Amino acid sequence: MVLPPERLERFARHIVLPEVGGAGQAALACRHVVLVGLGGIGSPALQYLAGAGVGRFTLIDDGDVELSNLQRQTIYTTRDIGHAKAVAARRWLANFDNAISAEVYDNRIGGENAARLMAGADLVLDGTDNFATRLAVSDACVANGLPLLSAAVGRFQGQVGAFAGHLPDQPCYRCFVGDAFDADDCDTCAEDGVLGAMVGWVGSFAAMQAIRVLLDGASALGDPQWGKLHLMDGLNAGMRTLAIMKDPECSGCGSNRR
Asked: Is 160 strand, coil or helix?
């Protein structure tokens, strides 16, 4: 893909990076990301992935913008309150860069529709806040041969992990959490609170990891880091990384696959 002059100017600071270069930037323009959840994590992730030049998005969220969202969900304004998040996110995207294409889906994603919504994607980024959705998304990624970035945050703690359970030697998200959380039983921001800047850190780091996945094989920055879970501590300003191993008996990607 040859980028036109106005796109070359827009992404000039990327292109001069040897780790990205013209080839990497052209690759990003051809990539399709499914963003599940357009809240505190999805907002900065969308902003930085759009800013990086990802060419196509599928935006999925069944919620409406509320006043309490504005403390951390950075793509929305008071004018968006009461409107569907997916529609408001597409409006933000169109205002930011009308060369990027986007489809929206403002109903809940689950096992019955996930495969259709993910069709043709290069990467799925999940920033939802309940295990039922996360596991449904993970299972659909395995079934359809798609890589998954899963990001979560609570109070001052965050995590971002890269999963490729469709590959024979790589774990899926279910290898990490098991089968014990198939209900909507996550703690919520409304109950426990969350620092807005912490959510921004997790979302922007998820965008960084997404760019690594999307540039795999296209530039020197490409490094999916499959099976790596990055744990982020906002109180002590630190990060550590764990390796997640594939569970051979996992019901999502192993011998007990459903």
From this structure: strand
CA–chain centroid gap for 94, Å, is 19
* Calpha distance 150→125 (Å, rounded): 6
Is 172 a residue of the active site? no
- As a whole number of Å, the end-to-end CA separation of the chain is 40
Task: Please give the angle made by the CA atoms of 229, 230 and 233, to the nearest 5 degrees.
Answer: 140
pLDDT tens for 98-121 read 999 999 999 999 888 998 999 999
How far is it, in rounded angstroms, from Cα 226 to Cα 213?
A: 9
Other CB atoms closer than 10 Å to residue 190's CB: what's the count? 10
Active-site option among 186, 189, 250, 253: 189
Q: In the Cβ-directed half-sphere of 216, how many Cα atoms lie within 13 Å? A: 12
Torsion of CA 171, 174, 176, 182, to 10 degrees: 180
Sort strands 157-163 and 228-233 into parallel, antiparallel or unpaired.
antiparallel
CB 245 within 8 A of CB 175: yes
pLDDT tens digits for range 33-70 = 999 999 999 999 999 999 999 999 999 999 999 999 99
The Cα–Cα gap between 140 and 33 comes to 15
Q: For residue range 72-82, what is the model confidence (pLDDT) as tens digits?
A: 999 999 999 99
